[in-house]
Amino acid sequence: WSLPNAEHYALQYADGRQTYITESVSGRPPGPQPRWLRTPPHRFPFSSQNRGEIKNGSILRLTTSPDQEAERLYSGIQSNNVDVKTDSLKKLASLSQDVTFAQEFINRNGLKQIFYIVEEGNNTGEILAHTLRAFTELMEHDFVSWETLSAAFIKKIVSYVNMNTVDASVQQLSLSILENMVPSSRLLFELVKKEVTVDRLLTHLQVTNAQLQLKAMALLIALLLAATDAERRDMMQYLREKNIRQFIHKNIIHSSEPLGDEMAHYLYVLQSVSLNLHERRMRTSMDPYSQEQRELLQSLRQTAFESESETPASNFSTERRRSLCAKEFRKLGFMNNSNPAEDLRRAPPGLLALDNMVYFSRHTPNAYSRFVLENSSREDKHECPFARSSIQLTLILCEILHVGEPCSETAQAFYPMFFGQDHFFEELFCICIQLVNKTWKEMRATQEDFDKVLQVVREQITRTLSLKPTSLELFKTRVNALNYSEILKLRQTERLHQEETLAVPVLELRERLKPELLELIRQQRLLRLCEGTLFRKISSRRRQDKLWYCRLSPNHKVLHYGDVEEGVHSPPIESLPEKIPVADMKALLVGKECPHMKEKSSGKQNKDVLELAFSIVYDVEEYCLNFIAPTRYEFCLWTDGLNVLLGKEMTSERTQTDLDVLLSMELKLRLLDLENISIPDTPPPVPKPPSNLNFCYDFSHAEQ
């Protein structure tokens, strides 16, 4: 448009976030560029060009350039006129979301002025809120490290969190700033942890302002995640003492307001951090020489048996006492009854299983004694082994609850009942170990059925947890109602649902689709051969470091192969000197049939290598080209592809898997319109032809 001083103008989106339009240097016509379009690497390392992202229909407006706007606002926030200063800070908070403007403003040392307003000013209202919002937006672009913040600035932000008379929006922004500071460095974490007490955060959690509550929870979670294991353990212990769990259960989970995604994520993290406190015990094997651990183990036996024994074990000889203890440990269900500590050497679940058993015996002694004595009086083959079941159940619960796994950055799946119960993990174990005994009896299980019973119990627990019960009592009621016969019914229903696709017409459709999908798999296999694979050479003595590459020509007529150097991933066909015409290939050999496997038959054969070996027999002299596939997946692709070239059926397990997946997808797409419609086994009868075929509709007479 030939505007004078063109560099003072820019285009900006009129809607949405109203970001500036920027472009790369190569995308501009020759001639001088406006300074806001130049992106010297030493100044703007994060510069982005978005001109190519403009969509048809986007409304743009001509406005002052980012550098002019940054200059104007930089002056405006220093104005002595309160209205000008407020408006400038408000506009700054809005424009700072744009990376181009943020670069220009930071280059003018704008952050220093913001620090001055916060550190020196006594504002606590609108001006301060706009200043903190602008600061937050500018820091979002990562141009400036959080570690560069001055101690005076941080103390001022902390003071806004700790004051009672500050505007709620200022407190929210201050909490958000501290949350961003905590993970950036250990020094900042320690400073924030020292200045903002957990008690103060709990005070903010108890307000009715949902946003302030959310920001307080965010800072608490940030502190927990940045803490060391010992600090995290101390913090969680303090939170337990302050009954944060009951507060969250009552005032956040069961509040009248619906729970937002962000708060749901923080509750998931809090749950995960709390459960992960069990990780240390879970990964620690039992030490048979530890007096404390041996006493815990003996307490299980004493609680179950010594109360019923008329003669104390101490009156017996050492040999008799040892024999009696071994017998009682066997009744408790330990596999190694002479040295039960061996059963707890496996980690996970390690000492966590022992902790759970001791907790069960001490907090529900009647249920514990009933479990042990009931099973010790059954026939040997029908008794449910308490200790073995407890060890396996602890492992199952750790897997279901993801104990020891790092927190997901996006997950929101927390269990409401977790916040409704102290010692959640142990109490859940107490319910589930009794469920094991109940299910064992329902299944009339023997020792051989142990894994099957625990598999059913896992299913009972996961199905009940998926219903998100709000309390452990409700969980107990539902999981006990979901007995073995109910599990069988559910399995049968799901199987029938899957087998809806096994109606006769659907089976016929499957058969019709198979040839087309098998052809698709063949094409995929040949394409994979055309891409080629890197193989390692195997000698009769040892594995060599030499590499060779093999690939099929695009016309599927020739196999090219040859040695390559380490680091070469996809060499061109021209660089592979050796060739085998596909027409000369006679047969494909796999496993023990391969010549390079027969040579090694005198020694101990490596089973893994045997499963990856295949050879091509070619030429009239019946030469062999021998392969060792890098993975089983590559083995399947290559053997399938070579069988296709030889005109034979694809026989690998991968073919069947791929075919099942493709058939399932295709059938689901074809049967979408038949949802909830039962498909008859036989086609409906064709109606009889009409007695008179001389009929037609006369359209000349309009209906009255």
Please tag this protein with its features:
single chain, 704 residues, alpha+beta, Leucine-rich Repeat Variant, PH-domain like, 3 domains, four-stranded antiparallel beta sheet, three-stranded antiparallel beta sheet, 9 strands, 52% helix, extended, SH3 domain binding
How would you characterize the overall build of this protein?
The chain has 704 residues and is of the alpha+beta class. The protein has three domains: 232 residues, Leucine-rich Repeat Variant, CATH 1.25.10.10; 207 residues, no CATH class; 145 residues, Roll (PH-domain like). Helix content is 52%, strand content 8%. The chain has 28 helices and nine strands. The chain has a four-stranded antiparallel β-sheet with strand order 3-4-5-6. The chain has a three-stranded antiparallel β-sheet with strand order 7-8-9. Helix 5 runs parallel beside helix 7 and helix 19 runs parallel beside helix 21.
Measured between the Cα atoms of the first and last residue, the distance is: 67 Å
The CATH superfamily name of the largest domain is Leucine-rich Repeat Variant
* CATH architecture call of the largest domain: Alpha Horseshoe
Poorly predicted spans: 24-47, 540-544, 601-605
**CA-based shape:** extended
Would you tell me which CATH topology of the largest domain applies? Leucine-rich Repeat Variant
Number of discrete domains: 3
- The pLDDT mean sits at 84
Percent of residues in β-strands: 5-15%
Number of strands: 9
CATH class of the largest domain: Mainly Alpha
The gyration radius over C-alpha positions equals: 36 Å
- The helix-and-strand class reads alpha+beta
Q: Count of helical segments?
A: 28
The major pleated sheet works out as: 4 strands, antiparallel
Region (Disordered): 26-50
Domain ELMO: 292-465
Pfam families: ELMO_ARM, ELMO_CED12, PH_12
Protein name: ELMO3 protein
